[in-house]
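Example S7 (structure tokens).
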């Protein structure tokens, strides 16, 4: 097959030349650098099955789940792809009346009467889980936090925090160990039993049940050994209620930090050979391992510089620790938070390094990190099951307020279109070679400071090849577009009726933020303007799809890709 401007053994079909010129002329009008970057995709060379690691999402505020814009976003997330989307939230067991707040929420699942008898109320928990399930998403159940009636330090309990303030009054009674581990275990037993009865044992057993969140920092005001004890009691209660359930942890954060690495290591040692405080047996059940990885953006010379190397180093160190335990080397690993930095509710107006969030830098970073994580997992022979994006929406906040979110007031941001792109990819990963790729070692050592990372991730299914291409750099500064020569080979000889489709995220495509800015950044857009913003937030084509003839030889497509731009090209037959 042959779709090329370049000379070969056969003259190209004129219709194909027209199509390629159409794609090139439709690209973002920015002067490209002189030398094109060649990316070669060999559809005949399978690398591995394409694991949809991107289909995991989470957020701090559980009560946004069933709010107007929250439930809309849940439906959009569930519709991203044919594979299940997994959704995790904090505060599923926190005491309160269900009023949402930044970095807080509650379900009032557990209270006690005057003499200490338990009272279980699953009303709000069910509203959350049912919102996921009705949409077709799958709960990723984070078991936490501590109900006030069970907390070993119940007062003060409700956080006092807003962006810009210190966190000294945030991690309060809900972050403490239980006053009674047996009572905590009975709460978890009743929760899992309820879910199995209400939603079906097979359904509930398919969920991940994760014990707590980031117990190596202030989310847990106990020792590592007290967390191990909490894990023992929790895991035993989950298995008692539903033996087939998948339970795991510890959801610790930052394994590149020596103290965090020590926490993860001691937890795995405990699960492998420690005394189980709940059962008296040796070890504790562990069906998956979770930990968190975060980047570290900063402001340099009055612009944002991303910190992708920090996120990748966290993952690399975490993999090293897991690999040192032969018993756990093959277990699924879920990065149950994997993000450019650590506080979704900290807006850019207060935290300037977070200014990457509204535009295309966020999806370009995520695309580059995604491939690097897959490469790390392959290099280290790790079973990477998911990289969870900790971003959702902030109900009722100003438009494009600079939170780390997928949508704002019901308007989708460019980052969500990256996941729409990846959701269209399926089958097996296939070989990609890019002249402009930054090596994995370089990404780990220092990120992308000097030249852009021009790279791709490609997959082949029965009748389609998909190629995700990005032009990413750490520094959020103007940079020229780059011409890409995308060369396909290894396509089936009998392919007929070829259809080329090119999706794009850049300033002009799939980007409601730039449209909103051109409107004058309205905080009360008219109904007509809102509809225009909704449409601008959807995944868009760079040009209309085009049919082409089946030809022999390699297929070559040239297009221009702006800085921080992402393309998804699909070739169907």
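Recovered sequence:
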């Amino acid at each position: 097959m042959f779709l090329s401007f370049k000379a070969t053994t056969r003259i190209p079909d004129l219709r194909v030349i027209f199509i390629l010129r159409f794609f090139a002329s439709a690209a973002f009008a920015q002067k490209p650098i002189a030398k094109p970057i060649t990316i070669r995709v060999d559809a005949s060379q399978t690398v591995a099955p394409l694991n949809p690691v991107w289909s995991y999402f989470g957020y701090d505020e559980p009560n946004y789940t069933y709010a107007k814009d929250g439930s809309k976003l849940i439906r959009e997330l569930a519709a991203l792809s044919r594979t299940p989307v997994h959704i995790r939230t904090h505060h599923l067991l926190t005491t309160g009346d269900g009023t949402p707040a930044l970095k807080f929420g509650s379900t009032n699942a557990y209270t006690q009467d005057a003499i200490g008898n338990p009272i279980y109320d699953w009303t709000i928990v069910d509203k959350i889980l049912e919102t996921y399930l009705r949409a077709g998403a799958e709960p990723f159940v984070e078991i936490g936090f501590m109900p006030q009636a069970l907390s070993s330090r119940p007062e003060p309990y409700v956080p006092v925090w807003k962006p810009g303030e210190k966190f000294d009054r945030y991690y309060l009674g809900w972050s403490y160990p239980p006053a009674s581990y047996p009572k905590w275990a009975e709460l978890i037993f009743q929760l899992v039993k309820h879910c199995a009865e209400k939603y079906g044992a097979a359904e509930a057993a398919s969920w991940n049940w994760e014990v707590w969140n980031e117990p190596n920092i202030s989310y847990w005001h106990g020792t590592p050994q007290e967390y191990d004890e909490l894990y023992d009691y929790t895991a035993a209660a989950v298995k008692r209620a539903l033996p087939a359930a998948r339970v795991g942890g510890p959801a610790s954060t930052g394994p590149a930090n020596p103290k965090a690495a020590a926490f993860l290591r001691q937890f795995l040692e405990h699960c492998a050979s420690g005394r189980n405080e709940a059962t008296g047996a040796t070890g504790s059940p562990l069906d998956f391992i979770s930990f968190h990885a975060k980047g570290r953006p900063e402001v340099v010379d009055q612009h944002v510089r991303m910190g992708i190397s920090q996120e990748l180093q966290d993952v690399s160190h975490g993999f090293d620790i897991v690999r040192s335990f032969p018993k756990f080397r093959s277990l699924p690993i879920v990065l149950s938070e994997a993000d450019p930095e650590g506080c979704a509710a900290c807006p850019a107006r207060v935290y300037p390094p977070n200014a990457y969030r509204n535009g295309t830098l966020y999806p370009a970073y995520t695309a580059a990190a995604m491939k690097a994580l897959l490469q790390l997992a392959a290099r280290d022979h790790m079973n990477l099951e998911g990289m969870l994006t900790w971003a959702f929406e902030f109900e009722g906040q100003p438009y494009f307020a600079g939170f780390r979110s997928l949508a704002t007031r019901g308007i989708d941001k460019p980052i969500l279109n990256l996941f729409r792109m990846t959701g269209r990819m399926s089958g097996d990963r296939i070989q990609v070679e890019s002249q402009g790729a930054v090596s994995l070692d370089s990404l780990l050592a220092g990120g992308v400071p000097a030249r852009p990372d021009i790279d791709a991730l490609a997959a082949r299914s029965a009748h389609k090849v998909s190629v995700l291409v990005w032009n990413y750099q750490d520094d959020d500064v103007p940079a020229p577009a780059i011409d890409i020569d995308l060369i396909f080979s290894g396509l089936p000889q009998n392919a007929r009726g070829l259809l080329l489709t090119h999706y794009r995220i850049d300033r002009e495509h799939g980007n409601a933020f730039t449209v909103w800015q051109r409107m004058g950044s309205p905080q009360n857009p008219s109904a007509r303007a809102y509809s225009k913003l909704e449409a601008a937030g959807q995944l868009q084509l760079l040009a209309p799809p085009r049919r082409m003839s089946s030809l022999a030889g390699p297929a070559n497509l040239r297009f221009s890709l702006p800085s921080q731009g992402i393309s998804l090209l699909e070739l169907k037959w």
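Notes on this example. The first strand starts at residue 37 and ends at 49.
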